[in-house]
Structure prediction request, 559 residues.
Amino acid sequence: MGNALRIEDLRKSFGTGFIPRKKEILKGIGFEVAEGEIFGYLGPNGAGKTTTIKCILGLIFPDAGTVEIFGKPHLAPGSRERLGFLPENPYFYDYLTAREFLAFYADLFLLGKAEKEDRIASLLKLVGLEKAAGLRLRKFSRGMLQRVGLAQALINDPSLVILDEPLGGLDPLGRKEIRDLIVRFKREGKTVFLSSHILQDIEMICDRVAVIVGGRIVSQGPLQDLISERVLFTEVTVSGLEPGELAGLGESLSVRGGKVLLKVIEEDKVGRVLELVRAKKGRVESLVPRTETLEDIFVSMVRNQ
Amino acid sequence: MKIGTIARNTFREAKRDRVLYLLFFFAAVCIVFARALAVLTVGDRVKIIKDVGLASISLFGVLMAILMGTGLVYKEIDKKTIFTLLAKPIHRAQFILGKYLGLVLTLFIMTVLMAAIFLAVLFAHTFRVEWPMLTAILFIFLELLVITAVAVLFSTFSTPILSSIFSLSFALIGHLSWGLETLIRKMRPGAGRTLARVLYTFLPDLENFNFKTEVVHGLPIPPRIYLYSTAYGLLYAAFVLGLAVWVFRKRDFI
Prediction:
């Protein structure tokens, strides 16, 4: 399989202020997205995620570097034929109904009348907006806008779907629905490029990730390579013991309803806690070993920059 | 085809904009008011209806072109709808031309409606259809083509308020620049005359589209003047649109 997207040494500066002073937003980033994978693009706010996406889409012109979409330069005619894009905050033509809105984008891909009608009907069904098809977008809730935005991104049945913060501002149910759709895209053979700072979601669905901090890629690769299986600490909840009796074995995080939550760093001390509970005729309520998460890695990367 | 899609959407946007109807309402009121004004006038009453009617069509046409044209591209950038649009396989030139043609279509329909009211008011007074008026209205529409192009140009890099001020200034200068031509004729050769000539070349001369006096008074107009005015209008609009595309193609959408 080839690459759906290849970026090499991408640089972009913006001039800000009355007397423009150059501020470098992208400082030579590079990564590749293989066909058929879900690629997570992580970074804190202001790291350069949206700027990268705008460079890919040709909305801003990079100062230097290469962007290729399915092997073609990103500004070449037709390079956006196989591309679908959902922007960070869904701003659309609020004077249009959902059906008119999708028809407008379908016409930009020169779809035939029958194909257009079929595509619109199936997409409205896919995103669960069949009943709102005749409603103007200004009456849509944030979640509905996100869903109709996703439908417009799929109007050309794209091979590469670029989603900028698709899960931001959604309730847990809405997030799950969008997550399920993204996984479905992958099953259908589409490549998904997903930018987000909601690490939990990225961790759940992405095959590979790249982390951008301060305009530089600080880490990239398969998710399992980034997250080690090493146990960082163990959280033990015990009852029937006073917090004072557990002193020296770990950090007491909370005491509530006679239960003590203890953070135990050294592994051998976990055994000693259990022995103590048994000796004092207490009870172990729970024991959770905490392995490294994407969030831990992300936080340490951001702090190190 | 893609230009047509964008133009249709722009037309739909304009159609659902209340400003358009407000301006149209005032234009209609002014045209009908011309009849009332004529009743109060001593002398040639038909001339008053024609003068006020044509001036109303021209004024409200220009206001529609400026108020809607200046927001045309800016709104897409400000509301960020441009992100999804330009992510589709369209050229930036297609976007500008589509937007322009959509507004031109809107203005055409508005001009036709204003013209219909105007001819109906005239008919109520004279009991005959004054077809020669259409010549003046056609050239008013040609002027709107130029002003819309200018409004779109400003809209590609400026806010609607500034763009409106610039476009309105353009329209005003355009109607006064003929004075420069007279000045050039009366000046002695030298730096001053060259400067006046350069200014006159670049500044628009919108009086080229003003045939109101001729049609109201039934004065003859040589066909080559029509031809010259039409070519001037179309070329000026094309040049300004080319400039708008050039500015727009270089823009980053942050």
